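Reviewer 2 asked us to include a model.

Predict the structure of this chain.
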Amino acid sequence: MKQDAGSQIGQSNVEVALLLVMVAVVSMLILPVVGVRLDGVFCQVVGVFSANAGKGCALAPSVIFSDDFSKDSAGWSFLNGKWRLCDGRLCAGPSGEFRALAKGSNAKDYTVSVDALLNKGSGYGLFFRASGDKKINGYSFQYEPGSGKGQFIMRKWVNGAQVYPPIATAKPPANYQWTNTPRHVDLTVKGNTFTAKIDGQTVLVGKDATYSSGQAGLRVWSSQASFDNFKVTAP
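Predicted model (structure tokens):
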């Protein structure tokens, strides 16, 4: 029995549709295995057809390291001091030097974020692009009330010692409350530029090209401080 042209076209369309479904299913199974993100593929495809349609297609940053301290502290290398878990937070102090690096956080460019609380004392810091054990080489951003003047500081470390003068310093806003106030700290490391934010506001920008990669971590000295929701994300 001879099929008319309309039937043949309809059959062809069904076959093409089935083929496209098969390709889509195979892609969904294979692409994640080889490390290709499907949302990235979608954004690229959309961008081909429209210069504007893909503008809202921003990819979420990939997580390099994350710890909310709800279970244990196995993800950390404690280099100095007796760190401890207290009520779902990582705690240090009230006296002595405390240093810790997040295992598996070694990378080049990333953003370090943490919820921090300084109860009393000299201050705390975030290590970045750091390596070594007790003799750390790398950088730190420091939340540093100091002797009462108070400032935000970026420092370089060589063989476990801070290099003077600092890379960058900045004074806080007037009447800034250093202690007993929860702070959300973000530190973005990109190339030779380091940008620190407190509660979403940029407080300090520093530049240095000595170290190109390394781990993220925490520092507390002569203080009582605690931390939660520590995360390292790649751009």
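The first helix runs from residue 5 to 30. Residues 23-55 have pLDDT under 50 and may be disordered. We have added this to the supplementary material.
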